[in-house]
Amino acid sequence: MAFPIHRSRRLRQSTAIMRMVREAHLSVDDLIYPLFVCEGKGIKDEISSMPGIFRWSIDGLIQEAREAFELGIPAVILFGIPDKKDEMGTEAYNPNGIVQRAIREIKTHCPDLLVITDVCIDEFTDHGHCGIVREGKILNDETLELLSKMALTHAQSGVDMVAPSDMMDGRVQAIRQTLDENGFQDIILMAYSAKYASAYYGPFREAADSSPKFGDRRSYQMDPGNSDEGLREVFQDIEEGADIVMVKPALAYMDIIQRIKAQVNVPVAAYNVSGEYSMIKAAAQNGWVDGELVMMETLLSMKRAGANLILTYFAKEAATLMTRY
Ligand code: PBG
Questions:
Q1: In CATH, what number is assigned to the domain containing residue 31?
Q2: Contact at 8 Å (CB) between 217 and 120?
Q3: Is residue 109 included in any domain, yes or no?
Q4: For position 303, what pLDDT does the model report?
Q5: Which of 190, 214, 290, 308 has the most CB atoms at less than 10 Å from its CB?
C-alpha cells in the first residue's frame, strides 16, 4: 500500500465517494429515546443538568412520545418518578403505578411505538438502592422476586420490552421465567449486562432523585477497571435468556462495546448516558464546541465501535437532523 500508487485521499474527494465507502452508518432506526414520567398534570419540568430533557406528566409524555415516533424513532424507554418511595420500592410493582399507567397510555395513543421499561427499584426506594437493603447490605436473591413482579406488571400493562438495570445476579433468568409462566413469552428482554459503577450517571440521579442515601453502587455495578468481567456478564445474561445485551455507559467504554460485539451474536446496545449528554450540552452552550457536530460524531462513533442500538437523550435532536439531510 505504498505511495504514490496508493493515495488514500482519492476516496475523500467528494461527498458522493465518501458516502459510498463509509463503513459505519447512523440511522434513526438505531435510536431509543429515554423518557422520565412523573405524577400530576401539565407537568414539563426541565432537568437543570440536562437541558432539553424533561420530567413529563402522562399527558405531556404521550405528546412527546408521539413526536419521537413521527420523527421515525422506533422506541422509547420509560423511567418512573413516583410520588411515594419506601423501603421495598412498592410503587415499582404497583399494577397502577406511574410507569404501568404510562405504558397503557402510550400504547393506546401510539400503538406502533415500541415501549421499553427500565426494570430496577432504585427510583422507587427511599434508600435509593437497586435492591432490598438489610443491615447495610444489598440482598440479591430476595430482590429477584421484586424485579420479577415489576416486570410482570409492565407486561400486563402492554410493554413490548423490559430492560433490567439493577445488576443483581440471576435477574434475567428470574424475569424470563416469570414472564413465560404468565404467558408473556413474546416480551423482549434487553439486559443492562455490562453496567459499570459510573459517575456519568450523576445527572440521571438528579432527574430521578435516585442517588443512594448511603454508600454507593459498587457492590453490584461493575468496576470500571474490568473488561473480561463485562464479557462474563454478557455471556451469563445471554444464557439466562437476554435477547439484547447492553453496555453502559458508552463513551468511556467503547473498548467494551467493541469486544462484546466481536464475541456475541445477539444485538448489542450502548447507553449514551446522562453525564455524556450533559457534557456535550454544557460545552456547546459555552460555545466551546459545535453541539450538533459533536453529537452526531459521538453517536456515529458508537456505531463504529459495534453498537447496534443506542439509548440516547439526543434521540429527537439527532433524528431531526437526519431527516433534514
Ligand atoms: C437504574 C438506572 C440508572 C440509569 C439508568 N437506569 C442509574 C443508576 O444506575 O444509578 C442511568 C442512566 C443515565 O445516567 O442516563 N435504574
A1: 3.20.20.70
A2: no
A3: yes
A4: 98
A5: 190
Is 46 a domain residue? Answer: yes
Q: Is 195 a catalytic residue?
A: yes
Strand partners, 133: 138
Q: Which residues line ligand 1 (CB under 6 A)?
A: 118, 120, 122-123, 165, 201, 204-205, 273-274
Ligand 1: atom nearest CA of 122 is 16
Average pLDDT per consecutive 10 residues, the chain (325 residues; last block may be shorter):
95 97 97 98 97 98 98 98 97 98 98 98 96 95 98 98 97 98 98 98 92 93 98 98 98 98 98 98 98 98 98 98 75
Q: Judge whether 288 lies within some domain.
A: no
Residue partners of 288: CB distance under 8 A and separation at least 6: none
Report the nearest-CA residue for atom 6 of ligand 1: 165
Are 39 and 57 contacting, i.e. CB atoms less than 8 angstroms apart? yes
Atom of ligand 1 nearest to the CA of 203: 14
C-alpha to C-alpha distance for 169 and 161, rounded to whole angstroms: 20
By residue range, what is the domain housing residue 97?
25-246
In a domain, 164, yes or no: yes
- Contact partners, residue 134, CB within 8 Å, separation at least 6: none
The tally of domains found in the chain comes to: 1
- Indicate which residue's Cα is closest to atom 14 of ligand 1: 201
| The ligand 1 atom nearest the CA atom of 313 | 15
